[in-house]
Amino acid sequence: CYPTDGTDRDELIMKANLALYQAKKSGGSVVRFNAQIGQSVMRRTRIRNALLKALEHREFELYYQPQIEIATGRLIGAEALLRWHSPELGEVPPQEFIKIAEESRLIFPLGAWVLKTACEALKRLEAQFQVPLRMAVNVSGAQLVQGGFVERVVRLLQHLGVRPEQLELEVTESVVLNREWEAVEKMNRLRMLGVRVALDDFGTGYSTLSLLRNLRVT
After folding, report:
1. Can you give the pLDDT of all 218 residues of the chain as single tens digits?
2. CA distances (Å), 43 to each of 15, 50, 70, 113, in order?
3. What DSSP string describes 141-183?
4. How far is the C-alpha of 20 from the C-alpha of 9, rounded, in Å?
């Protein structure tokens, strides 16, 4: 709206486009530009730009959350949790940067680094505790549909000497909910090779049990 949101054509068009982007994202029919929209888009832009150099500059770190068997209380494995310590943005939570990484295709090198680093940590943990363990790693639907994903996982496991049943890949319910059958087919292939598959956050969206018939989850 002139002159509240700007006094020249270019500024008004730019802010109208930001409102349009927000309307498409939220599914709303009409969205008016406000300061919050501007800040949100600026934040996304800064995250996208910072992501380009974050992996190269070793700004990512994996935390390992222990997995305990309830019946016995023994340690059976760990889940790798990705954290980003950005010198420019501070601590950026995964719910902010993962989606942007998927949109910019940076999820591919980032996901490969996470998988390799987690499997290397698994070998070190096994040597430390002298017990067989497994490692859970989150993967996105974008990674799963990338060409050669199954083959790369198998090669990595063979290279590091990790047995397939020691790796657990966690996928969100959206992969099943959106009926991404190519991703489901690859998960089933991995499951047949021995890799464990887990469905993360099931029930937080609009999933139904009938969708699970096509997925061989752990």
Report:
1. 889 888 889 888 888 888 888 888 777 678 888 888 778 878 888 999 999 999 999 999 999 999 999 999 988 999 999 999 999 999 999 999 998 999 889 999 999 999 999 999 999 988 888 888 999 999 988 888 888 999 999 999 999 999 999 999 998 766 655 556 777 788 889 999 999 988 776 555 555 555 566 555 55
2. 15, 11, 41, 25
3. HHHHHSTTHHHHHHHHHHHHT--GGGEEEEEEHHHHHTT-HHH
4. 16
